[in-house]
Amino acid sequence: MSYTVREPYSIPAAYQTQDSSEFERKALLNAVQADAVVIGAGITGSTLAVHLCESGKSVVQLEAKVPGWGGSGRAFGSVVPCHKNSEEAIIRHYGEQRGTRLIDALAHGPALVSELLNRHNIDAAFAGGGWAFGAHSKPFYKKLQKRAEYWQARDADVEYLNASEFSQVIGSDYYRGGLIDRRALSVNPYAYAKGLFKTANQLGAKQYTNTPAVNVEQKGNGTWRVTTPQGSVECENVYFCTNAYTKGVWPGLEKGFVRVRGFGATTAAIDPTKLADILPQNHFITDTRQLWSGIRKLPSGQIHLGVGGPAMGAKGKADLKVARQRLKDVYPAIGSVEWGESWSGWIAVSTDQFPRIICLANGVWAAQGYSGRGIAMATLLGRELSFCQGDSEREALILPVDKKIPWVPFHPFSPLGAAAMIGLYGIQDAMGDRNK
Ligand SMILES: Cc1cc2nc3c(=O)[nH]c(=O)nc-3n(C[C@H](O)[C@H](O)[C@H](O)COP(=O)(O)OP(=O)(O)OC[C@H]3O[C@@H](n4cnc5c(N)ncnc54)[C@H](O)[C@@H]3O)c2cc1C
To answer: How many domains does the chain have?
Structure first.
């Protein structure tokens, strides 16, 4: 029996760094005690472990595979200061007070990531000018202009550029305009996740890899016992930070979201004379399409794309034909390219795309459902979970706490529903392309 989701792809080679200070990890082989058990060593789990250690708690962190094995080690690496849903939609969903708090927290997300990187000496951020968010079709020019005005009124370093200004920034005249958001960051997400894991270790967390939690049960005295294949931990609080890789440990937890696959691909290193004209100020691009549109340069001289592919099932491959066409559309001068590698990872999508903090029982907590915008969110919710203990949370969390696992209608059929939605998005994107 496996207690995490099957993941056939390795962590991309493009994200592997030579870290000479890497230290050995071990599996848990005995019974131990701690104030808190953190399950999962992605960005959520390791941020949480850092915060719990800093607040004086004794922490055991369990990882089924290796740190960064989940979405955190496979993400495109854009750290953006906003949610997928618009600011109006956030206020509608959460109300004025909580919604504003979430919008402000997200706006501060990249700065929070930067602050953690600097404070803990984690080398994961790529130099660059921020986020170039292109309007891929006519209706979106106005939308992005309004968005720029919204953020400028809040003193954010954001501006809308017309076609010729935008083309100078990205080195392509593909878009008729777009937004430049200099608050955003481009990171190596695997290096970030590993750096946080190492920081938690330095702060005193006891960490065990290749050690899945297989069972969580309450003892007579109200404390919890987390069992692993060869050991166990007794503790006051348990935190599920397993997100899209959640499987089978807490009844129904993985039914609170729909699991879909996202893909990434890199080219081989590009001729430096051609590369100089592509994203000359090192921004990363995404655009107003609903499906994958990310393009960025890696320090290795490769180009990295967010790519589509079969959204369901573990075995599918990145759609390199579409990726090649996208590169050709935006950068025709690049000519033919060799691919480096492609990979995939699971994403936990909630029905309304909003993430959740869930109190599963007195002392058992989870954060999940980031819907593909998870690097800043995982950093934020790792911090927020550290304020959740027993059955109560600190007031003024950025999200309300769900007392039940969210209900996804017809969950067993959700792969079909998600595939249909993705098909529909593809059609809408293609229609938008024709309406440039
Ligand atoms: C292809 C792709 C591209 C993406 N691009 C972006 C992007 O550009 N920007 C952005 O913000 N977000 C992006 N995301 C989303 C982002 O990567 C995730 O939302 C975020 O990394 C989730 O972090 P996490 O720590 O919550 O979960 P994960 O990183 O998935 O970590 C969960 C961990 O739990 C472990 N685990 C599972 N079960 C157990 C168990 N029983 N016991 C112990 N450990 C267990 C897993 O092995 C895993 O290491 C992308 C995701 C993918 C897949």
So the answer is: 2
Q: What tens digit of pLDDT does each residue of 226-274 get?
A: 999 999 999 999 999 999 999 999 999 999 999 999 999 999 999 999 9
Could you tell me if 118 and 158 are in contact, meaning their C-beta atoms sit under 8 angstroms apart? no
- Is residue 280 domain-shared with residue 294, that is, in the same domain? yes
Same-domain pairing of 329 and 424:
yes
Rounded-to-10 torsion of CA 327, 328, 332, 338: 70
Which residues approach ligand 1 with their CB closer than 6 A?
Answer: 3-4, 39-45, 62-65, 69-72, 74-78, 212-213, 241-246, 249, 262-264, 345, 347, 370, 372-376, 378
CA of 146 to the centre of ligand 1 (A): 32
432 and 283 together in one domain: yes
pLDDT at 151 over 90: yes
Q: How far is the CA of 176 from the centre of ligand 1 (A)?
A: 34
Largest CA distance in the chain: 69
Pick left, alpha or beta for residue 245 (phi over 0 → left; psi -120 to 50 → alpha; otherwise beta).
alpha
Pocket test for ligand 1, best of 183, 245, 379 (most atoms within 8 A of CB): 245
CA of 117 to the centre of ligand 1 (A): 18
Q: Looking at the predicted structure, is the pLDDT value of residue 434 above 80? A: no
pLDDT in tens, 382-433: 999 999 999 988 888 999 999 999 988 878 877 777 777 777 777 777 777 7
Q: Are strands 215-218 and 185-187 parallel, antiparallel or unpaired?
A: unpaired
Structural domain range at position 48: 13-74+190-256+352-405
Interval between CA 244 and ligand 1 midpoint (Å): 6
Q: Where is 328: in which H helix or E strand? A: helix 320-330
Q: Report the DSSP pairing between strands 130-134 and 177-181.
A: antiparallel
User: Which pair of structure tokens corresponds to residue 408?
Assistant: 């996804």
CATH of the domain at 263: 3.30.9.10
Same domain membership, residue 147 and residue 56:
no
Q: What is the pLDDT of residue 22?
A: 57
Same domain for 340 and 276: yes
Distance between Cα 71 and ligand 1 center (Å): 3
Q: Whose CA is nearest to atom 53 of ligand 1?
A: 345
